[in-house]
Amino acid sequence: MALRSGGAGLNPILNYIDGQFVASQSGRTLATINPATGEIIAQVARSNGDDVEAATQAALKASKAWSATTLEQRVKWLHSIADALEAKSEAIAHLESLDTGKPISLARRVDANRSVSNFRFFATMGGDDEVPTFSANGAVNHVHRKPVGCVGLITPWNLPLYLLTWKVAPALLMGNTIVAKPSELTPLTAHLLAETLDELGLPKGVFNLVNGYGPEVGQAIVEHPSIGGISFTGGTSTGKIVAATAAPMFKKLSLELGGKNATILLDDAPLETIMDDIVRASFTNSGQVCLCGSRVLVHEGIYDEFIHSFTAKVSALNVGDPMDEATQMGSVISMDHRKKVEAYINLGLEEGGDILTGGTSSHAPVANMPEEGAFLRPTVFANLSTSSRTATEEIFGPVVTVHSFATDEEAIAMANATDYGLAGSVWTADIERGHAFAKNIESGIVWVNTWLNRDLRTPFGGVKQSGVGREGGTWSMDFFSELTNICIRQP
Ligand code: TXE
Q1: CA-based angle 338:341:343, to the nearest 5?
Q2: Domains contained in the chain, number
Q3: N or C end of the chain: which has fewer CB within 10 A?
Q4: CB of 285 shorter than 6 A to ligand 1
Q5: CA distance 143 to 339
Q6: Whether the Cβ atoms of residue 141 and residue 486 lie closer than 8 Å to each other
Q7: Does 90 share its domain with 223?
Q8: Cα 435 to the chain's mean position, in Å?
């Protein structure tokens, strides 16, 4: 699929500001790379504060009319967008796989599908939105939703369109106008979204897209005094910068950051039926999902059996060309990121770990893939201390550490012994026991006998260094709106 005003090739992928596809004002560009081949896919507008200013002015100009539309009209827009993205599902999957190196099958099943359902879900939510009234003291209180105004949406490279649409859908539904910035590593599907909104005739200025580097564009969005709310997904270290910038400006802020999640197998975990789930929780998208379980804690009574089965299944994963339908794991996002992940693999060895399968690209090369491709085989470490850096710092790649425990209390302590608190999963034959166990885990979401099972009505977000705030269902609608309570004394 040729991208309008850009495309697979060296045509620039442009910004979308005030209903126009435009280059950056400086004329500068940056390259987006196919991580599986090392080839340049396209040049991308490299923007700065001037472009953010233009996008913000466009959003402000569009804000009055857009916020005056009815909820029913905005629900219709979300359904139209969902329909249009659904018709482009295969193009979305192709572009996402091209930009990220993830398998085309994963991009279709997760990224394309969820991008559509994000719009469909919030359209349904909008239709059902019941803002409460409260009566007391001879008065009736009406809770009235208003848009924040112009919001800034900043997204990462691991699930580009999935995470962008997760923010765009509720932001539009609540009557906001948008300045969005995708990761500089993965601009393709954000551009497709802009094309789609343009084709649908969304009023100009309602959605604006500014491409470029974080410090040059993201920072300018967070700093802009006319952007009233920031929804950010990305690394914890960047999240700290965003928070420090936004806090003194009293902006609404939602931060979905990193994780170092625990997958916990209790002594009665049914190994005969869950092993494929444990591999999926460990290595989906090459471990580049903030919800992946990167520490696997296994009761000592089933440890040996688990290790044997897990190592065999991980070793058998089909790592290769992302565009091959049979591929189960593609490349990581970039050569730089592969180097970061390999540094952790070397650190794991220095910290006394034993590699059961995998290793660096030189020790465990991926067969038949170009050396310019950022490929890594999945790596499993055993015998590392749970307090080692490899087992406590976020690696965000295809590396897991496995640890044994003797008691549930020990497992809880191990699971909570990181600075992060995003997600976790507990595996047991007794779901009552799993439910009780899950309440002890310091994280925003805990799955019992499942993983990445998502009901979009539920609150999503982390604690500790995994973030601040929740998005999802009414939590998204509350984030993307300001509430005014109107109290009327009854006659
Ligand atoms: O995140 P970044 P990246 C974690 C994971 C990964 C690390 C870096 O550990 O290795 O974050 O990934 C923009 N002001 N996760 O590089 O750098 C940036 O341009 C405003 C977990 O994607 O935080 C990009 O658009 N914005 C995460 C976005 O922030 C700034 C998923 C995220 O970039 C900025 C991805 C600044 N000063 C990575 N600097 C999850 N929880 O899902 C950069 N950006």
Answers
A1: 110
A2: 2
A3: C
A4: no
A5: 52
A6: yes
A7: yes
A8: 26
How far away, in angstroms, is 236 Cα from ligand 1 center? 8
Task: Indicate whether 188 and 63 sit together in one domain.
Answer: yes
Q: Does 65 reside within a domain?
A: yes
Report the candidate in 318, 289, 284, 322 with the shortest Cα–Cα distance to residue 97.
Answer: 322
Nearest protein CA to atom 44 of ligand 1, as residue? 214
Task: Give residue for tokens 């208003």.
Answer: 146
Question: Which residue(s) pair with 43 in the sheet?
Answer: 12, 31
Please state, in angstroms and as integers, the Cα–Cα distance from residue 77 to each residue in 71, 180, 217, 266, 350, following that order. Answer: 10, 18, 28, 47, 55
Distance separating alpha carbons of residues 378 and 319, to the nearest angstrom: 9
**Do 295 and 444 have their domain in common?**
yes
Residue of 32, 183, 221, 224 to test ligand 1 pocket, by largest number of atoms within 8 Å of CB: 183
Q: Which two tokens stand for residue 463?
A: 């604690």
Is residue 187 within 8 A of residue 213, CB to CB? The reply is: no
Q: Check if the beta carbon of residue 156 is closer than 8 Å to that of residue 233.
A: yes
Together in a domain, 244 and 265: no
8 falls in which pLDDT band (50, 70, 90)? very low
Confidence of residue 454 (pLDDT cuts 50, 70, 90): very high
Contact 68, 79 (CB under 8 A): no
The best mutation among 154, 219, 245 to test binding of ligand 1, ranked by most ligand atoms within 8 Å of the C-beta, falls on: 154
Which of 253, 249, 277 is closest to 264 using CA atoms? 277
Q: How far apart are CA 60 and CA 223, in angstroms?
A: 16
Q: How far is the CA of 18 from the centre of ligand 1 (A)?
A: 26
What residues are labeled active site? 256, 290
Range of the domain at 379: 261-455
Q: Computed over its alpha carbons, how large is the radius of gyration of the chain?
A: 23
CB 158 near ligand 1, within 6 Å: yes
| The two structure tokens encoding residue 65 | 């009319």
Alpha helices for 290-430 (secondary structure H) = 303-315, 335-350, 389-392, 408-415
pLDDT, average across residues 234-240: 98
Q: What proportion of the chain, given as a percentage, has pLDDT over 90? A: 96
* Contact call for residues 227 and 179 (beta carbons, < 8 A): yes
Taking only the tens place, the pLDDT of each residue in 270-319 is 999 999 999 999 999 999 999 999 999 999 999 999 999 999 999 999 99
Quick check: 100 and 373 in contact, CB under 8 A? no
Which residue's CA is minimally distant from atom 25 of ligand 1?
A: 183
Triad 264, 268, 274: Cα angle to 5°: 60
Q: Which helix (DSSP H) or strand (DSSP E) does residue 278 occupy?
A: helix 271-283
**Nearest residue (CA) to ligand 1, atom 11:** 235
C-alpha 296 to ligand 1 mean position (Å) = 25
